[in-house]
Amino acid sequence: MEFLKKLWNWLLGQTTIDEKIKAKVIKVKKEIAEVKTAVSVVVKESKDVVTAIKPKKKRNYSKPKGSGSSPRLVGSGASPRLAGSGSSPKLAGKK
């Protein structure tokens, strides 16, 4: 058994497997860091695209109350009519 231990240690000392593995691990860590930064850039850009596509809130361009733009109803009966003369209803203008 002692002979096998010595042989194994001698083989490990002769090969550069551990050095190759260390170099590979370092290379993979660098690549993972690059991928992380690339993914974060893609996430930021996708958020920008989503906000650009999202419909914007419509502005309210209605006139304030009391501006006189609505028709006035006249009469106190079963069928109120719009202010004005004649049989056809007309919009009442400001007097």
Protein architecture, described:
- With 95 residues, this protein is mainly α.
- The protein has a domain at 18-51.
- 53% of the residues lie in helices and 4% in strands.
- It has helices at 2-14, 17-53, and strands at 73-74, 81-82.
- The longest helix has 37 residues, at 17-53.
- The model has no long low-confidence stretch (mean pLDDT 75).
Identify the notable features of this structure and list them briefly.
95 residues; mainly alpha; two-stranded antiparallel sheet; 2 strands; rod-shaped
Number of strands: 2
Given the structure, what is the number of helices?
2
- End-to-end distance: 118 Å
Largest sheet: 2 strands, antiparallel
Q: Report the portion of residues in β strands.
A: under 5%
Q: What is the H-and-E element order?
A: HHEE
Short description:
Helices cover 53% and strands 4% of the residues. It has 95 residues and is mainly α. It is rod-shaped and about 105 Å long.
How are the secondary structure elements laid out?
Layout: H1 2-14, H2 17-53, E1 73-74, E2 81-82
Antiparallel strand pairs: 1-2
